[in-house]
Hints:
Pfam families: His_Phos_2. The chain is of the alpha+beta class.
Amino acid sequence: xxxxxxxxxxxxxxxxxxxxxxxxxxxxxxxxxxxxxxxxxxxxxxxxxxxxxxxxxxxxxxxxxxxxxxxxxxxxxxxxxxxxxxxxxxxxxxxxxxxxxxxxxxxxxxxxxxxxxxxxxxxxxxxxxxxxxxxxxxxxxxxxxxxxxxxxxxxxxxxxxxxxxxxxxxxxxxxxxxxxxxxxxxxxxxxxxxxxxxxxxxxxxxxxxxxxxxxxxxxxxxxxxxxxxxxxxxxxxxxxxxxxxxxxxxxxxxxxxxxxxxxxxxxxxxxxxxxxxxxxxxxxxxxxxxxxxxxxxxxxxxxxxxxxxxxxxxxxxxxxxxxxxxxxxxxxxxxxxxxxxxxxxxxxxxxxxxxxxxxxxxxxxxxxxxxxxxxxxxxxxxxxxxxxxxxxxxxxxxxxxxxxxxxxxxxxxxxxxxxxxxxxxxxxxxxxxxxxxxxxxxxxxxxxxxxxxxxxxxxxxxxxxxxxxxxxxx
Length: 474
């Protein structure tokens, strides 16, 4: 009951925090010139704990649906016209992918019940609409996946009701901004104006459908076609990249060495292994943080055995190490190398779509990629958003393409992460506002970044993806 009380207190605090938008103006005075105040993502000394608090971070990661959030999507001077939108999401809340050995699995119901918390006014209609979609034609093997979660005891990795509600909320928010306010799609939109792609997991397909239902309620099933993406990096036909894999191996080695140095972490794993009566190695391999986060997000007490209980102190040590690992990952830059090569194919595809839209083509005006933390994280890193938090459940990263009505040949881009405008934190646009009065980032900055500067950032002399992937002597 202490755990429950602590959780409810933290939940109350986190709901209070999420109601306060995490944005404070920051004035940076470089060379004595003060730039205009810029919104920034992190950290906010007014509302955030002064030291990184592992439980606070974990609750942000849970992203428990509460108050409707304020967001910066669709904000632009009135003479700008929205041309296309590209949305990358992480799937919503899911059941763990791992179990803590020799303990009872957390009991969470993965059927959708309209009047159960977390609630969403569209949930009942969503369930009804999904039950009519069994004839939908999606690219194989997606057509064999269930369209919504439906097990009384969740299966491993299955989307939960929380996960569905998170994305119904995302979809509704984007509908209010992009369709009602900006009229991105006509009322009689056609199938080729959407581009939908997902990995082959039920949780990503279902998250994509929930967002789409919030965005286009009661859509015509005949107009919906999801493409299957076999790679979590969404690299399509450009996945072979030996140098990217070398960066990843070095990054994994860095993680391993950091773990070895953390004696408190070792001690904690040892204690937990004793409680569940398995070797420490086996407990670590079971990735207990994944299961513990599920207990925390769903307010289920941590497991006990006759040897004792896994508790909040164990959780804090493991979560704190995770946060330290992210911090060191940013400093060491190996992950950045992996990210630049890992995110290049999907960014290249995205600017291809945007370029066609600048030419006045009307296809694929709204693109949705339903993906994983391991998809969004490299994209954030490659864009230079090193301060951005690790992708929470139902995280969204959005690229908006705008046209200046007064100069129709000029196009601009905005990047938003979980509703916060991070355009001027990206490496391709962070200095733009010092040189230009324009309120947005020129589209050509993004194009130049993807076509050239991503390779420059890797060092070496490569000027294209193939050469950068096959560079000798890395």
